[in-house]
């Protein structure tokens, strides 16, 4: 049965959203909340605040919500028998740069206080599944302090946001594969693997296999990767620039109205430079994203509810949205530390009010038990899958309730307390309105 949201609950939720995005003491610069059911029917939608008029059709950078879209594309290649999830030989063959890496275990102070980095040889295999479940042994320059320290000399270009390929090449591993969970660069390596498997540029693969079949024209790579997306004439005035929250509580824009295209070395497949990431990189809308995510609901099992187009086999949907971590790894470390505290606050996914029994799926988290919020209200169901984008964007897909929820705040620092509390407030009110 399709979820039914009580009218009085919808009115109360709209008032709550407006109270946080307007007035002299805004908690954040704006918000888009868009909720659909398994048929892509709108259950609730409200946009408030913003430096431009906001709606479900507003363009914004998706950041790490790109990851689950990367998982969809890779599982399509698995279905075509081009690759398998657990084949370590494909890493040795097609990602020799990754296969050759050693593990950075730390450093000691040498002469003149220079760091002498300590490495050990890799002993375990790396598989595509590990790249997507954060267990392959790598880190991320924004979130791992040791890797950030290692890349500090020249970090303005050796980071995932400015030059993904150079950062991948320069980054060592940090753990033996399969022994630790750590939020890392796995999906950016997956992007390279997809290009080398298909011998095509990544935007073409995404367009042919996902965006075009769904008729999506508002989702694609950011202009900085050398393609025109936000700068298309039909998108004029639709892009919502990101902001940074100041210590005084104000908001300073950090984007121009149109993101600028960047000149890159000759890109794959015409050259050897892999420009396009899958850890981040896409621009989209709330409307497009919830439609893509709705395909992964168990009620749809890989079929687009709007067009009837099959995007994935049911078995691929189960792979993406099922817990991937064995017990020792699941309980080892699912927190997200910070190496750049001015822009990213650390997050503990194991916290009691978040997901203490959860796991990683492929490009997402998987809720291990029904969420109980700090307020005591019920939240998303066990088995819901979810993830976050760096500019305070997040989604969850609740298969038990047939529900897709997207919350977009579009500002830094990520995981800032007022945003976290706000989303929890939205979540509690949503499930209360559904008769949880």
Automatic annotation (TrEMBL):
Domain Beta-lactamase-related, first and last residues per copy: 23-406
Name assigned to this protein: Beta-lactamase/transpeptidase-like protein
Stretches of the chain forming a coiled coil according to its record: none
InterPro entries (UniProt xref): Beta-lactam-related, Beta-lactam/transpept-like, Diverse_Enzym_Activities
């Amino acid at each position: 049965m399709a979820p039914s949201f009580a009218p009085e609950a919808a009115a109360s939720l709209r008032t709550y959203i407006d109270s946080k995005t307007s007035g002299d003491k805004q908690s954040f610069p704006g918000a888009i909340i868009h909720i659909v059911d398994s048929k892509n029917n709108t259950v609730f939608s409200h946009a408030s605040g913003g430096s431009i008029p906001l709606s479900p059709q507003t363009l914004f950078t998706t950041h790490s919500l790109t990851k689950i879209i990367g998982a969809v594309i890779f599982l399509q290649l698995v279905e075509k028998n081009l690759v398998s999830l657990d084949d370590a030989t494909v890493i040795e063959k097609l990602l020799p740069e990754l296969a050759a890496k050693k593990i950075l275990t730390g450093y000691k102070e040498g002469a003149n206080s220079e760091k002498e980095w300590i490495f050990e040889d890799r002993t375990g295999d790396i598989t595509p599944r590990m790249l997507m479940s954060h267990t392959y042994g790598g880190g991320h320059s924004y979130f791992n302090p040791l890797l950030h320290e290692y890349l500090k000399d020249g970090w303005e270009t050796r980071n995932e946001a400015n030059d993904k390929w150079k950062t991948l090449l320069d980054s060592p591993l940090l753990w033996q594969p399969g022994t630790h969970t750590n939020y890392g660069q796995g999906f950016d390596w997956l992007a390279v693997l997809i290009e080398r498997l298909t011998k095509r540029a990544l935007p073409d693969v995404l367009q042919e296999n996902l965006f075009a079949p769904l008729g999506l024209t508002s989702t694609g790579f950011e202009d900085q990767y050398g393609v025109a997306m936000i700068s298309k004439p039909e998108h004029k005035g639709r892009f919502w620039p990101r902001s940074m929250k100041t210590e005084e509580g104000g908001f300073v824009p950090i984007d121009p109205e149109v993101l600028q295209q960047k000149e890159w070395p000759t890109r794959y497949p015409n050259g050897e430079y892999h420009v396009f990431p899958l850890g981040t990189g896409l621009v989209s809308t709330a409307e497009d994203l919830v439609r893509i995510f709705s395909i992964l609901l168990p009620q749809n099992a890989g079929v687009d509810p709007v067009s009837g187009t099959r995007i994935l086999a049911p078995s691929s949907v189960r792979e993406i949205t099922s817990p991937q971590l064995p017990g020792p790894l699941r309980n080892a470390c699912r927190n997200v530390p910070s190496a750049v505290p001015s822009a990213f606050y650390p997050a503990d996914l194991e916290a009691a009010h978040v997901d203490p029994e959860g796991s990683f799926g492929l490009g997402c988290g998987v809720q291990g038990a029904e969420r109980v919020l700090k307020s005591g209200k019920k939240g998303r169901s066990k088995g819901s899958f979810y993830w976050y984008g760096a500019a305070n964007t997040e989604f969850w897909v609740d298969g038990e309730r047939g529900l897709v929820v997207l919350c977009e705040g579009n500002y830094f620092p990520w995981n800032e307390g007022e945003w976290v509390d706000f989303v929890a407030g939205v979540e509690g009110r949503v499930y209360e309105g559904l008769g949880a």
